[in-house]
Amino acid sequence: FTLTERDNRWYGLGTCDMKGFFPLAIEAAKAFTAADLKQPLIILATADEETSMNGARALAEAGKPNARYAVIGEPTSLKPVRMHKGIMMERLMFEGQSGHSSDPGLGRNALEGMHEALGELLALRTDWQAQYRNTNFDVQVPTLNLGCIHGGDNPNRICARCELHFDLRPLPGMSMDSLRQAILHRIAPVAERRELLMAFEPLFDGVPPFETPADAELVKACEQLTGHTAHAVAFATEAPWLQKLGMETLVMGPGSIDQAHQPDEYLEMSQLEPTVSILRGLIRKFCL
């Protein structure tokens, strides 16, 4: 928890992801006075970025701040990022009737219903991956991961309850609401046919996919200042909510995502001055 300088690195939790960005943004802003600014300059901090993203959600709901452009300082090794996938984590539960396994007619097996539902989910994944592709991503298709399953309590008892948790990573252009409706359309008939109670709900609200056009003014400015073409990443950010506020949004900050959440998290000191220089370049272009 204490910032330590060693081997030309800043070590400490959050140095890379993403508290290290704030002192660098403040250092960049210190080069200018209020009299210099023709457009406002805002340094914005939000809560719960690693979990619910409720801070960014609250801002979007409140309709503030009012701004034209936003740079999110997630660790991208100072390479601009203009798109990322979304994240959905979902819960599916079937409830049937327990009974002695010697007579299947005594119960309604929730585990067998889940087995059928798993087949429907995997079939949907195949359909989505055939329909959607984005070559900007290393994994070019949307993914669906079957994460964990729990059901039953004894080999000789008909399983009365089974619960599945899974995640989806939709590409830009895919609607989370439409995906959930597609799942319901395939799963609800399984529950009805097998006379099972069903619950299907998100484990959290999810993060929508994000994309800023390649020809956006902010994207072109960051590409010019960094010398890197804007690209796509697999991790999600608060960008969709800042976009919702009408801001042209881009993700770019010092450090590598590979160092994030590590016990020896660090930020290379060689990234400090370039970060300040790039941010000052953006301030000159958009605020002076």
- Percent range for β-strand residues: 15-25%
Distance between the termini: 37 Å
Shape: elongated
Q: Briefly, what CATH class of the largest domain?
A: Alpha Beta
Query: From N to C, what is the helix and strand string?
Result: EEHHEEEHEEHEEHEHEEH
Mean pLDDT level: 95
- Rounded radius of gyration (Å): 24 Å
Extended strand count: 12
The CATH H-level homologous superfamily of the largest domain: Zn peptidases
Tally of distinct domains: 2
Determine the structural class based on helices, strands and strand pairing.
alpha+beta
Major sheet strand order? 6-7-5-8
Structural description of this entry:
InterPro entries: AcOrn-deacetyl, Bact_exopeptidase_dim_dom, Peptidase_M20, Peptidase_M20_dimer, Peptidase_M20A. It is found in: Cytoplasm. GO terms for molecular function: acetylornithine deacetylase activity; metal ion binding. It is an enzyme of class 3 (hydrolase). The protein has seven helices and twelve strands. It is of the alpha+beta class. The chain folds into two domains: 4-84 and 209-287, Aminopeptidase (3-Layer(aba) Sandwich); 88-202, Alpha-Beta Plaits. Helix 1 packs across helix 7 and helix 3 (110-131) runs antiparallel to helix 4 (176-193). The longest helix is centred in the middle third of the chain and has 22 residues, at 110-131.
